[in-house]
UniProtKB/TrEMBL annotation:
PROSITE patterns the UniProt entry points to: PROKAR_LIPOPROTEIN
InterPro entries noted in UniProt: Ig-like_fold
Protein name in the entry: Fibronectin type-III domain-containing protein
Length: 227
């Protein structure tokens, strides 16, 4: 009996000393520059159409390398760069809106982490800028959703503008792609709209943002299916 007790205690000691050998997953970094919803004016001019912009972010816990992703929102063209530093320079189009994110990686972990997504305009010759394309939030593209008790789904989006002069959001919604039916418009402070739907149908939607200068931007089309 005594030998059994000693054996059990010895095994318990080994387990308690073993610890957790799972490598720590990298954490998301904090973006620094270009600032969110800003005009970037510090780029180095390379030509009439291009300038070099240096992106900066904070060091993330347990991260060994980072992947910078920058997307031209007018052309949907991405540029990607991997680095162990917390800054990187890219040549990007002047006078265009961009979205950027940074992913964190660690070679000891299969997991990764992604930062927030920030939008900015790269400075050009413009004195006024079109609004950023609305970022469609819900339903997500390709998602299957459940309608509410009123047979409706709520469309939600985010809008931003360097000049801070958004006037309206116009919502397009239909069963065809691109959507052709106008649901209506909302003011700058309203970024959601409920719409009647039918079970089993795929719908397409987009948002066109207009500012007080008459400049417009198109969100691009999302689709979703109703359960």
């Amino acid at each position: 009996m005594m030998k059994n007790i000693v054996g059990i205690l010895f095994l318990a000691f080994l387990v308690s000393c073993g610890g957790d050998d799972t490598p720590p997953a990298p954490e998301a970094t904090n973006l620094i520059f270009p600032e969110e919803n800003s005009e970037c004016t510090t780029g180095t001019s390379l030509s009439e159409t291009l300038s070099q912009v240096t992106f900066r972010w904070g060091a993330a816990n347990h991260a060994e390398r980072y992947a910078l992703n920058v997307v031209n929102l007018e052309t949907n063209s991405p540029q990607n760069l991997t680095t162990t530093a917390t800054s990187a320079s890219l040549s990007i189009a002047k006078g265009a809106p961009f979205a950027w994110t940074v992913m964190s990686f660690n070679s000891d972990s299969d997991e990764s982490a992604v930062s927030e997504t920030w939008l900015f305009y790269n400075a050009g010759s413009e004195t006024t800028y079109a609004p950023f394309p609305a970022q469609l939030v819900s339903p997500e593209s390709g998602e299957t959703v459940i309608m509410d008790i009123a047979n409706e789904v709520t469309l939600e989006w985010d809008g931003a503008d360097v000049d801070n002069d958004i006037d309206t959001f116009q919502v397009f919604f239909s069963e065809t792609n691109p959507p052709t039916t106008t649901l209506g418009t909302t003011d700058a402070s309203t970024m959601q709209m409920s719409v009647g739907v039918t079970s089993g149908v795929v719908y397409y939607w987009k948002v066109v943002t207009t500012d007080l200068e008459g400049n417009t931007s198109d969100s691009g089309v999302f689709d979703f299916k109703v359960f």
